[in-house]
Inverse folding.
């Protein structure tokens, strides 16, 4: 799932855990993991909703100033169906630095 640049920090901090998307069909599935530039998003649930369900509270919880701000970003292509996606951020796995191979000295 792609997020507007201004929302990415809030997603990484766990402040934004839902997104409203207007698609032709669902582009994600519950349990799926989707890359961000750092870490991943794991989808907890996706459900169809209607325009009356897009409240100012939902817009703010999704990282927007209000409903109009959200609707400017939520539509993707010719989408007509509205989906509420609940997710959580999964930070990148820190890998231990590998030790360089060095020949042994003496026996």
């Amino acid at each position: 799932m792609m997020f507007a640049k201004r929302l990415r920090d809030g997603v990484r901090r766990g402040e934004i855990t839902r997104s409203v998307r207007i698609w032709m069909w669902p582009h994600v599935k519950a349990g799926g993991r989707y890359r961000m530039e750092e870490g991943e998003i794991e989808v907890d649930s996706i459900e169809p909703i209607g325009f009356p369900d897009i409240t100012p509270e939902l817009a703010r919880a999704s990282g927007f100033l209000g409903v109009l701000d959200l609707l400017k970003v939520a539509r993707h292509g010719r989408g007509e169906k509205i989906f509420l996606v609940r997710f959580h951020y999964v930070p990148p796995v820190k890998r231990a630095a590998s030790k360089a191979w060095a020949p042994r000295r003496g026996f």
About this structure: DSSP finds three helices and four strands in the chain. The mean pLDDT is 89. The chain has one domain: 16-90. The radius of gyration is 19 Å.
